[in-house]
Specification:
- By secondary structure, the protein is of the alpha+beta class.
- The chain has 2 helices and 6 strands.
Amino acid sequence: AVATVNDGIRFDSKKEANFYNDLKVREKAGEAIFFLRQVPLHLPGKTKMVVDFQVFNANGSVEFIDVKGMKTDMYKLKKRQVENIYPIKIKEV
């Protein structure tokens, strides 16, 4: 992954920066009301998982999105924990 700066924001990869651009387009089109970046989800043992984006869609739905290139074992564990603790599903792109 190549770190990329877009709108003065440092992204861990070009893929994440491109997804950010796509979200801005969705926002302007009225599909998404707004979105948040780097949203922490707290887990037991004073740990947390940070998802790349939380998107509030115009249809009332909310998405938790993680832009992934490679799924590490730690990521898989934390994703499983989050989805067991919270009533959400993390969408991977």
